[in-house]
Design brief:
The protein is α/β, with parallel strands linked by helices. The protein has a six-stranded mixed β-sheet, with helices on both faces. Helices cover 35% and strands 16% of the residues. The two termini are 31 Å apart. The protein is built from seven helices and six strands, in the order βααβαβαααβαββ.
């Protein structure tokens, strides 16, 4: 996992959540529904991109949904990097939950919601398990990181739930504890750094003064 002959290659992975959407504001579960950014979401992406560009990233990969693709485009415009889009980085598919508000989910699927919050493996709305999301997303992140130069930085533009499950998988947390990582605010990011023992969480939900987490993963 750490390159040749056990050496630490000092790579970093920045996992960046997309900007605000109308459904985030309504606390409506998006999942794989293709919702676009609000004007504020575009402004958030531009502000964050200026900060992330200062990290001099070597590669950008992103979910192919509009909210992530448009967020990633702001960083690509500043860095000149091409974006590799991959549907494996999409948000958790949540079946019947998609399009419902937080309150509607709690009212209609209260037992399922409570079990998920307890850390039990739950197919929310008949959709994907969190471990299945990690099964599809984490290998894409790892293989992209493997292509980095020593000391390189990969930016992954994805979704709150997918980022959390990917972090959990990459740093070796048991799936039932992934909820303890907390959600990401729109256009905030988390940073993984490489150590002799694998990936380590260096920053979580960074990028601005604390803001409420709206939408998919609160």
């Amino acid at each position: 996992m750490n390159g040749h002959s056990g050496a630490v290659r000092d790579r970093k992975i920045v996992l960046w959540r997309h900007g605000q959407t109308a459904w985030n504001l309504e606390r409506r579960f998006q999942g794989t529904t293709d919702i676009e950014l609000t004007d504020e979401g575009i402004a958030q992406a531009r502000r964050s991109a200026r900060l992330l560009a200062a990290l001099r990233p070597d590669a950008i990969i992103a979910s192919d949904l509009r909210r992530t693709a448009d967020t990633a485009a702001e960083l690509a415009a500043l860095t000149g990097l091409e974006i590799t889009h991959d549907e494996a980085l999409r948000e958790t598919y949540a079946g019947a939950w998609q399009g419902l508000t937080h309150e509607e989910i709690v009212a209609q699927y209260g037992e399922q919601y409570a079990a998920w919050k307890r850390g039990e493996p739950v197919r929310r709305g008949g959709g994907e398990l969190e471990t299945e999301v990690a099964d599809r997303a984490a290998p894409v992140v790892e293989s992209s990181a493997d292509k980095l130069p020593d000391g390189g930085t990969l930016v992954v533009v994805s979704h709150g739930g997918t980022i959390r499950t990917t972090i959990g998988r990459l740093i070796g947390l048991a799936p039932g504890t992934w909820e303890s990582l907390g959600g990401l605010s729109n256009c905030c990011w988390s940073v993984l750094g490489e150590t002799l023992r694998g990936w380590r969480l260096l920053e979580h939900n960074a990028g601005s003064l604390p803001e409420p987490v709206l939408g998919d993963d609160d």
